Amino acid sequence: MSSNPSAASLVQLLHRWGQWMGSTLDGDDWSEWSSSVAVQNPWFEPEMLKQALKAWSMALEPRSLERWLAHDEDTPFLQRPPRSVGLILPGNIPLAGLHDVLCTLIAGHTALVKPSSDDAGLVSWAIHGLLALQPEWSNRFAIVDKLNRVDAIIATGSASTLPYFEQYFGQIPHLFRSHRNSIAILDGKEKTEDWIGLSQDIFLYYGKGCRNVSKLLVPEDMSPQHILDGLQHYPWEGNNHRYRNNLDYQLALHMLNRKPFTHNSSVILVESPTISSPLAVLHFEYYQSEQDLARQVLGAIPVTQCWSGNQLVARWGQRPSFTNQFEEEQWNTWCTHAVEFGQCQFPEIDRYADAVDTLSFLRSIQ
Asked: What are the residue boundaries of the structural domains of the chain, listed by start?
């Protein structure tokens, strides 16, 4: 394959890469390899790693890739002058930051990757699988300990790390991201399959991802116990010892502080206006009307990664008392971030973190 693949050949390449990741689940060494990953990072249990590989395999389907790359279908890749792009990756969930590396390579640049100490070697493993299919890219990927001279940077961290990113890299083209959360909207008509999907949105990767639901918006007649009953369908129920320690700690903390809460064996449910919740805690807030729900949604749009629900756009888009509260740009943003129950951690390949088009940013670097 040429080092300058067309959009069509790039689709084929990335689809083969996705198939390779998916086939890893059935390989003879899966048990040994996945167990070794869990030793390096106990949060990355084999079941969680399996879900991450499944998500990437699904994202790299030809139809999704063709849509993603459609605006470049007549233009060869890698024609622009390459630049060195530093990538500071998170390690909260398996393969976090892999999308940034992929975008950098597609844009024709050199990816200098500083992975998180929690990464467990997964991003390097995945990219070397891609390079085995596209060896011409091998000189444009490197794992580094420090980022000294780079032409641009994409850095993901917490709110406390953003000032440091700005201090060290604010003078060059950059994308800085901090942690976000996701919100689910319930209307009281949820069926068993909806609760199963919502449970996955909450508990997959033990709630450590930006796309994990940390808060529910629920109608005023829905009881906390009804929510917990619905969430009991989740099959993994937080058996990870680190998650259990967090659950026990939060339970003791809420008891000592005499804060109202409800809980089961998997999560503590707390009424709160705050979007972000501690690990093992799920916040919820009531809405009294469609206008009240719209007000809560509008206040949360700038800091929310995605919105989980049952056909949110189709259902709420038919209610003028809800939609009339939005400006056109706000409505379009909310619609873009809306997903079905159970799909928060299975984003399409063209769903960018913080809704910022990473590929366009990389292609704009001079």
From this structure: 7-179, 181-340
Contact 52, 59 (CB under 8 A): no
DSSP helix/strand/coil, 289: coil
The answer to whether domain 181-340 has CATH 3.40.309 is yes
- Look at residue 178 in the predicted model and tell me its pLDDT: 87
pLDDT, average across residues 27-33: 93
- What is the side-by-side strand order in the sheet with 338-340? 262-263, 268-271, 281-287, 213-219, 181-185, 304-309, 338-340
C-alpha 231/C-alpha 204 separation (Å) is: 13
Beta strands in 144-250 (DSSP E): 152-156, 174-177, 181-185, 213-219
Give the E-state strand segments of 254-360 in sequence order: 262-263, 268-271, 281-287, 304-309, 338-340
Distances (CA, A) of 222 to 229, 230, 288, 299, 319: 12, 11, 11, 22, 21
3-state secondary structure (DSSP) of residue 112: strand
Q: 88 near 157, Cβ under 8 Å? A: yes
Residue type present at position 269: L
Q: What would the pLDDT profile of 213-250 be if each residue is shown by its tens digit?
A: 999 999 999 999 999 999 987 665 557 899 999 999 99
Dihedral sign for Cα 218, 222, 228, 231, please: negative
> Quick check: helix, strand or coil at residue 171?
coil
Classify domain 7-179 at the CATH class level.
alpha beta
